[in-house]
């Protein structure tokens, strides 16, 4: 009997899969930290014979090459991927056989030109699942603008036909197993659900319910900003990533932390955003180690800049390192662990207040308050605090001079991005106030809200 195991990478909104027949396994779209894959395979007592990529990934560094080398498995990429290392090029119609597993290759362009899906069948030939990568997602499809603006419209039409091909050629009860769509920015529009079949998607997915041009128009209108680090991923995956290194960074003494901050290097504090607000090293940046950590650090980080981590524990630093290697940030300048007062080495800590939207409403009732909205343009178009200044977090570093000195209250959708923005803004001459609250509470707090004309996140 065929079984499919799911490996979640919630921080990037992606899934990898292990399909096995009890003895032999194939792995689809593995993440960089392959120890998780090896552990699951060992737990089920199966041998990995094939590693399959649906496409050259733009949102993470693949672990496929290292996994194939470590296990002696075939490494399969779509024909036309441009990979610069030895691999098996899978073309439309090919059938891959591993033990009692049968995998049919279907060319499903849209997310990329070379994208394929894999139809999984048992020894009897019955298709039980389709690994759809960045093509058919739950209630959506993969975004089509990552290859380049000149290809977006063409790929959007191709995506429509690819999804319809899957629905036409595969059994209605086949499970849909996408790689993206669980928070990944590789999704064209928000996804829904945690599992699905082709029959369910036929009733709900825009690519299967809308006319072609209506689908194209809807997808294009839904495309918003995506993380800047995506530009690094495709070329790195085509060259072939180096073996992953999850070792601890070198320890850094407090006096050296101060020197690095003064030299303009990145010193990132991993503690909770409220702890950072209560006291932090002047000039350090606050990126709370939680679900969105790697997405937003990668979005703002300039690759090659020396990066030092501050953590409450070695375990926290190790977790951050694992997240960072997933997007190709392999070289860390070091890490400092311990109490922030000790790491300050006698220097005064900086701090700023934390409040919610009710606190903002109260302050606004008494005096003028400068408010900064750090969300994307598409979010702001759906509603914002009236009179607020808008600078998306991913543009703040280059537009920081547009923010006046003095008091600035900062909000986003949940408080996470606002906290990062607050750490960027927190400098002498400016008093930051972090609004650590869900935007859904703004109107309930009595704040006047407004809607803007629809806009993309470009």
Characterization of the model:
- The chain has 458 residues and is α/β, with parallel strands linked by helices.
- The protein folds into three domains: 3-239, Ribonuclease Z/Hydroxyacylglutathione hydrolase-like (Metallo-beta-lactamase, Chain A); 254-343, Oxidized Rhodanese, domain 1, CATH 3.40.250; 354-450, Rhodanese-like domain (Oxidized Rhodanese, domain 1, 3-Layer(aba) Sandwich), CATH 3.40.250.
- The protein is globular and about 70 Å long.
- The termini are far apart.
- It is built from 16 helices and 24 strands.
- α3 (152-169) packs across α6 (212-222).
- Strands 1-2-3-4-5-6 form a six-stranded mixed sheet, covered by helices on one side.
Compact description:
The chain is α/β, with parallel strands linked by helices and 458 residues long. 29% of the residues lie in helices and 22% in strands. The chain has 3 domains: 237 residues, Ribonuclease Z/Hydroxyacylglutathione hydrolase-like (Metallo-beta-lactamase, Chain A, 4-Layer Sandwich), CATH 3.60.15.10; 90 residues, Oxidized Rhodanese, domain 1 (3-Layer(aba) Sandwich), CATH 3.40.250.10; 97 residues, Rhodanese-like domain (Oxidized Rhodanese, domain 1, 3-Layer(aba) Sandwich), CATH 3.40.250.
CATH overall fold name of the largest domain: Metallo-beta-lactamase, Chain A
Fourth-level CATH superfamily of the largest domain: Ribonuclease Z/Hydroxyacylglutathione hydrolase-like
- The chain-level mean pLDDT equals 96
- The first-to-last residue Cα distance is 47 Å
Q: Just name the CATH architecture of the largest domain.
A: 4-Layer Sandwich
Radius of gyration: 24 Å
How many domains comprise the coordinates?
3
With strands numbered from the N-terminus, the spatial order across the biggest sheet is 1-2-3-4-5-6
Number of helices: 16
List low-pLDDT spans. 454-458
Shape: globular
What portion of residues belong to β-strands?
15-25%
Going by helix content, strand content and strand pairing, the class is alpha/beta
């Amino acid at each position: 009997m065929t079984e499919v195991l799911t490996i979640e990478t919630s921080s990037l909104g992606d899934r990898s899969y292990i399909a096995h027949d009890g003895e032999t396994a194939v792995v689809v779209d593995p993440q960089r930290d392959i120890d998780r894959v090896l552990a699951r395979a060992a737990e089920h007592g199966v041998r990995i014979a094939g590693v399959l990529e649906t496409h050259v990934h733009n949102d993470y560094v693949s672990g496929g090459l290292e996994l194939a080398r470590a296990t002696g498995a075939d490494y399969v990429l779509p024909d036309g991927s441009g990979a610069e290392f030895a691999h098996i090029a899978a073309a439309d119609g090919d059938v891959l056989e591993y033990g009692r597993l049968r995998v049919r290759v279907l060319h499903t362009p849209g997310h990329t030109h070379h994208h394929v899906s894999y139809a999984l069948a048992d020894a009897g030939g019955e298709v039980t699942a389709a690994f759809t990568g960045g093509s058919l997602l739950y209630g959506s499809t993969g975004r089509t603008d990552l290859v380049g603006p000149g290809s977006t419209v063409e790929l959007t039409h191709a995506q429509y036909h690819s999804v319809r091909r899957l629905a036409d050629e595969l059994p209605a009860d086949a499970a849909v197993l996408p790689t993206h769509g669980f928070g990944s920015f590789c999704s064209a529009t928000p996804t829904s659900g945690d599992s699905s079949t082709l029959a369910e998607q036929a009733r709900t997915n825009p690519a299967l319910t809308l006319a072609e041009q209506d689908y194209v128009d809807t997808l294009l209108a839904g495309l918003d900003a995506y993380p800047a680090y995506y530009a690094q991923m495709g070329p790195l995956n085509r060259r072939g990533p180096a073996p992953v290194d999850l070792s601890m960074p070198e320890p850094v003494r407090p006096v050296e932390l101060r020197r690095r901050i003064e030299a303009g290097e990145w010193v990132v504090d991993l503690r909770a955003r409220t702890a950072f607000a209560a006291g932090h090293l002047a000039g350090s940046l606050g990126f709370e180690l939680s679900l969105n950590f790697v997405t937003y650090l990668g979005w703002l980080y300039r690759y090659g800049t020396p990066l030092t981590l501050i953590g409450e524990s070695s375990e926290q630093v190790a977790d951050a390192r694992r997240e960072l290697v997933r997007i190709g940030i392999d070289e860390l300048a070091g890490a400092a662990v311990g109490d922030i007062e000790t790491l300050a080495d006698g220097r005064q800590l900086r701090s700023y207040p934390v409040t919610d939207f009710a606190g903002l409403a109260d302050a606004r009732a008494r005096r003028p308050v400068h408010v900064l909205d750090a969300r994307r343009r598409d979010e702001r178009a759906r509603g914002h605090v009236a009179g607020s200044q808008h600078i998306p977090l991913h543009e703040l570093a280059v537009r920081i001079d547009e923010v006046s000195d003095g008091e600035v209250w900062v909000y986003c959708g949940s408080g996470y991005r606002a906290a990062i923005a607050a750490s960027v803004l927190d400098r002498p001459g400016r008093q930051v106030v972090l609004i650590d609250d869900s935007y859904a509470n703004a109107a309930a707090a009595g704040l006047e809200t407004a809607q803007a004309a629809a806009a993309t996140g470009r």
